[in-house]
Write a structure and sequence with these properties.
Blueprint (H helix, E strand, L loop, with lengths): L2 H9 L30 H22 L4 H8 L3 H13 L3 E7 L7 E6 L5 E7 L3 E8 L4 E8 L6 H18 L7 E8 L2 E4 L5 E4 L8 E2 L10 E5 H12 L8 E6 L3 E7 L2 E2 L31 H4 L1 H10 L8 H13 L3 H25 L3 E5 H21 L3 H4 L3 E4 L6 H16 L4
Parallel strand pairs: 3-6, 6-10, 11-14, 14-15
Antiparallel strand pairs: 1-2, 3-4, 4-5, 7-8, 8-9, 11-12, 12-13
Helix pairs in contact: 1-13, 2-3, 2-4, 2-13, 3-4, 6-13, 8-9, 9-10, 9-11, 10-11
This protein binds zinc ion.
The site of zinc ion has 6 residues, from loops.
């Protein structure tokens, strides 16, 4: 199992989960909750079996539809082991046969997929103006969505109210699904630290929120998991998007805030307590512009949406409508020959190139993915310039060893990535 899964084990609440699925009692350190074993070899065998089962289940979710042969190959298992695990997962109702295809030998090959209604997961994109709460089935199709919030930045207390209101609205509309909700994953606008006992705390310094214990955010008995929003986005891209199948990647999130997920050896880099890779608050300018975090010269102070629009406004620019439209107008005005707009856009590209070029030197990625609504808007028309600038700001060798991609998803990537946290806990859960 990857370190990803290990992290989730630590991140989870130590209490047993109210659970529809009796054989699965999820806990922080599942093995420590078991009765002592008398044979020294037994726990090794069990954990190997559990890890193989987790690998197969994850592979089926990642693939969406697959075969026993592909599972055996991708998980490094014998055909017999893969078949046994598939039989077990099907008996538990987590996967099903969705059809078959013909093979050369004549015998049809079964196609296997997650059973959509066997389990549900909730992912939340917690922004500074409100929360988008999304309900996904076990095939990761979004089946419902609720937004709660406003148009202005909110104090920390309102976010908790927004969360509970939105979750309650989803519950009211989906009573028949609620007993199969595995958990709620939160993608948050700040550092999320995980304590040794598994408890988590949000530190949103840029928003001037107090430290918020995650356990106090949501009422009810559904397990709650939390991660930084940019890391949640990176996980969505790693599982289903532009970083799929890639072991080393940078996934940048550019919106009002600026964040980054660094994927190394197929897992997110987390650091000692989980707050690593806060690229948005690394420096691109000594004694530069004031940043919302209280420091100066941070990447976010140049590439965050507010910074971009303030600069344009200060230069006499006029814009209205959504940020998406306004940024499009700025790029179009620059392309039409307006010198002021062109200089602002050039600065954005140069800063992004310098800031990501440094990260390329530090991490040697195979792929760089740029997302978030600001990032997606920039990539629409400026991708070749951005790519050249990143490469020219990195050393020649690592600067020539990555591909640049736009994010695969629209604005909902953080919620999708957050919804994977309860799935990872299920994958890591002990089975007996
Ligand atoms: Zn900062």
């Amino acid at each position: 199992m990857s370190t990803e899964t290990g992290y989730i084990k630590r991140a989870e609440s130590p209490t047993e989960v109210h659970h529809w699925y009796r054989r699965t009692t999820m806990s922080v350190e599942p093995n420590t909750r078991r009765p002592p074993r008398f044979s020294p070899g037994a726990s090794t065998v069990t954990s190997l079996r559990q890890s193989n089962r987790g690998a197969v289940l994850k592979q089926i979710i990642l693939a969406g539809e697959t075969t026993r042969t592909a599972l055996a190959t991708n998980c490094g298992l014998s055909m017999a082991s893969a078949t046994n695990i598939v039989t077990e997962l099907a008996q538990e109702g987590l996967i099903e046969q969705t059809g078959s295809k013909s093979s050369r030998g004549g015998r049809p090959i079964s196609l296997l997929a997650p059973r959509a209604d066997s389990a549900y997961t909730i992912g939340v994109d917690v922004g500074e103006r409100g929360v988008a709460v999304e309900l996904f089935d076990f095939r990761m199709n979004r089946v419902d969505r609720e937004f709660s919030g406003g148009t202005e930045s909110q104090p920390a207390g309102s976010i908790a109210d927004d969360l509970n209101q939105a979750i309650s609205a989803l519950h009211t509309r989906n009573p028949h699904r609620w007993d199969r909700v595995l958990g709620i994953g939160l993608g948050l606008p700040g550092l999320v630290e995980t304590e040794a006992d598994g408890s988590q705390v949000l530190y949103a310094q840029s928003l001037d929120w107090p430290a918020i214990p995650i356990a106090e955010l949501i009422q009810g008995d559904i397990p709650v998991f939390a991660d930084n929003g940019a890391k949640a986005q990176a996980k969505a891209e790693l599982w289903f998007g532009a970083a799929r199948g890639v072991s080393h990647a940078l996934v940048a999130l550019l919106g009002r805030g600026v964040g980054l997920g660094v994927i190394t050896d197929g897992a997110l880099t987390r650091g000692a307590v989980g707050s690593a890779t806060e690229w948005g608050h690394t420096k691109v300018q000594l004694n530069g512009r004031p940043c919302r975090c209280g420091s100066n010269g941070c990447v976010e102070a140049y590439l965050g949406a507010d910074a971009i629009f303030t600069e344009w406004e200060d230069a006499g620019g006029r814009f209205d409508g959504t940020g998406w439209r306004a940024l499009g107008d700025l790029i179009d005005t620059a392309a039409a020959g307006d010198e002021t707009a062109a200089s602002i856009v050039a600065n954005i590209v140069d800063t992004l190139g310098a800031a990501l070029g440094s990260m390329v030197n530090l991490t040697n990625p195979e792929r760089v993915v740029i997302g978030g609504w600001v990032g997606n808007r920039l990539m629409e028309s400026l991708a070749p310039r951005i790519e050249r600038t990143i490469r020219s700001n990195a050393l020649a060798r690592p600067g020539g060893q990555f591909e640049l991609h736009a994010s695969s998803f629209g604005g909902d990537t953080v919620a999708l990535g957050a919804a994977l946290m309860p799935i990872e806990a299920l994958i890591a859960a002990p089975t007996d």
